[in-house]
Design a protein that fits this description.
It is built from 20 helices and 17 strands. The protein is of the alpha+beta class. The protein has a domain of 58 residues. Strands 5, 6, 7, 8, 9, 10, 11, 14 and 15 form a 9-stranded mixed sheet that branches. Strands 2-3-1-4 form a 4-stranded antiparallel sheet, covered by helices on one side. It has a two-stranded antiparallel sheet with strand order 12-13. The longest helix has 41 residues. The N and C termini lie far apart (73 Å). The structure holds S-adenosylmethionine. S-adenosylmethionine binds next to helix 13.
Length: 641
Amino acid sequence: MGRRAKNKQPPPEPLDAKPYSSTKKLGKRKAETQDDKPRPAKKIKDSKSKKPRVTFDDDAGSNDGWEGVQDDGVIGDLDDLIDDEDDDMLRGPVQELDFDSDEDEPAPLLLRGRKSKQGGPAPNIIPTGSDDSSEESGSDDERTTMANMEARSRALDAKAAAEAELDIEEFQQAAADEDDEDDVDMDGQEDANGDMDAEPFHLPTAEEREEEKLTVPDVHTVQRRMRECVRILGKFKRLAAEGHSRSDYIAQLILDISSHYGYNDFLAEKLFHLFPVAEAIEFFEANEVPRPVTIRTNTLRTRRRDLAQALVNRGVNLEPIGKWTNVGLQVFESSVPIGATPEYLAGHYMLQAASSFLPVIALAPQPNERVLDMASAPGGKTTHIAALLQNTGVVFANDANKARTKSLTANVHRLGCKNVVVCSYDGREFPKVMGGFDRVLLDAPCSGTGVISKDASVKINKSERDFTLLSHLQKQLILCAIDSVSPESKTGGYIVYSTCSVTVDENESVVDYALRKRPNVKLVETGLEFGREGFTKFRGKTFHPSLNLTRRFYPHVHNMDGFFVAKFKVEKRVKAKKADEEEPIMVEVVAEDGTVENKPQEDAGFDSDEDRPYLEESKRRRMKAKGLRPPPRSKTVKATA
Ligand SMILES: C[S@@+](CC[C@H](N)C(=O)[O-])C[C@H]1O[C@@H](n2cnc3c(N)ncnc32)[C@H](O)[C@@H]1O
């Protein structure tokens, strides 16, 4: 521990020039902020009471992006980012399964804080080179202006590259030091933090665990135990105590994770298993820190350079996000509420998490296409799609929650989208309601395990049953999304499936199910420049090998909300081979005289359209037999009758 994250991606980083170095924090930063008295491990009781705060470090020189996010010197309250209506949807009938935590409909957000010594934003972004806003040359002006942005960008690129090299050196040095540390730690002289008076480490016995449950665990003890478990699991043969298995250490670590970070045991375990041991801690640590505040330029109303200029003039400190988007801006600091500026009210931008850009980039809608956004409220992605269509074609923005379509409609109007039709059906009713789309986005209702830093209630309110129900709903929705796409589309024929969750049940399992149920679809490249490959194997499950084309995004790796994106191409359905082309299935037939003959099986000939009335009628009969009231007969059944 105490070194940079192993899983850092080389530059260019999407949001953050340097990865989150959580292991340092776990070992040192938290301990440094404490007084000498033992402090209870943190436990989330009420998510609303835990308001993430953002500040900027005074010392910009030592600011590597993550260090700029601290607990003192408040500049904002990110709870305001979360749409209040998200709570409503947990109450309605359809929303029983809807754990959306998309924050695209913000209340006014005010970022306040001390300015960094540099005067400009903390250098924690590699700005885009694709932005035409950086035509003018830089100046020495202290504030970020469009004029000095390009120079700053170049300087930051160089700095990031140099820092990346330093990181590698630091990483190698830390790896070399680790062996020495192991020897020191285990003899009880010094722990991984350099505490000379530490007791030799041992796993608590069953009695000690029981005893600990009755008290509030000391945060130092829990942290140290977590560090030790991670270290021992990393070199198990060499460091494990006799008589203890890997699973003993893992079980203790999961217990400590749930108590330290305030998760229920079920979710702590589920999330833990997504990563190698040390990385899991980085993930849990990253969930304790708010993600950067980002906005998406509405290109129907303005250009990014003009928007940036307007906001800079109002005292907003911002920079382009990464090279992967030419519409995103990261807001570092603002003396005005970002969700209530005249530019916001005039629809020049959407307050939107960077991860929310990804599915729309993957969808890549083309002008004049017919697009369905199947679960669209409050419209962050709908309005992005409308902008990419340049207000041509049509976007059907659907959401099962009628109440949420109000904010969707408001956003559609504010952003000047003229090609959007808002509707409110259960997504599972498509394509019966309408079909033949060139592209469909299914940004599915999900558990929100990717957005825990915004909604900490997820830590305690998700049970095994929730994941089963959600996964079931997602599987139903994805089939309907696929069936709503026209394989004949001249320009498209694509569906994008996304969630703001990181669990395999809601992502790879759903995609794999769709591939099995719909042989006419295949996964294709998302077109996204970064992101980890989806799992093709997970804890004994094997998925289709093409699952490696899907992309996973993580807070501790990409400094954005946890997210998943898969893109499918829908092909024409291949008709089953004609009977005379197929090998006949042979069945034994007993003739009248009692002799047995092998004969080809007669073709059962199933035409789903033709047979639908009969199937429907037999379903009604079955329901009646069970004492249930069947739904009224559909028109086709009546016609057939
Ligand atoms: C992740 S949110 C969508 C966020 C949206 N795409 C955006 O970018 O602003 C999921 C949405 O699914 C909707 N939803 C839940 N169940 C649904 C269903 N069966 N059919 C359609 N929409 C549903 C919820 O009301 C919620 O608004």
